[in-house]
Amino acid sequence: MTVPIEEGTDELRGDVHVRHYVLRLTRPVEEVWPALATSAGLRAWLAPAEPFEPRLGGAVALRLPGGTARGRITAWDVERVAEYTVEGRGRIRFHLEPDRPAGTTVRFTQESEGEGDPGWCERFERLIAHVEYGEG
User: How far apart (Å, rounded) are the C-alpha atoms in residues 2 and 54?
Assistant: First the structure.
């Protein structure tokens, strides 16, 4: 059985921490995309996202523990790339690729100045439960 979350890597580029994860989901891209690129989808596993303007340059605000992180959508290619750059959290990018026979590989990158584990593995477990089993 394939492990759905490949162990993340963390590298330092100057003062910026770059974290990478790879998630392998059994659902097709068109079922995974809404969880990563809609207000309702993000609310189910990450945080309420209001406002959320689904377009390049659109506003996004994530209501995370400790406060609201406001930012912009800095890359947007429907069913391929969703990238959000938000204050205090840096840049988070989801790159989706179709995986045979009907699954999706999600390549995740976060670039931020923050140190320590931001809890992505736990969040990804909630994402997997939401996408694969409709939980959340």
Answer: 32
Residue 22 CA to residue 9 CA, distance in Å, equals 10
The count of C-alpha atoms lying within 13 angstroms of the C-alpha of 134, restricted to the half-sphere facing its C-beta, is 0
Distance CA 119, CA 26 (A): 23
Both structure tokens of 94: 């989801």
- DSSP classification of residue 88: T
CATH superfamily of 5-133: START domain (3.30.530.20)
Averaged pLDDT, groups of 10, the chain, 136 residues long: 71 92 95 98 96 98 92 98 95 95 94 81 94 85
| Three-state secondary-structure class, residue 121 | helix
Q: H or E element: which one contains 91? A: strand 90-99
Chain-centre distance for alpha carbon 91: 10
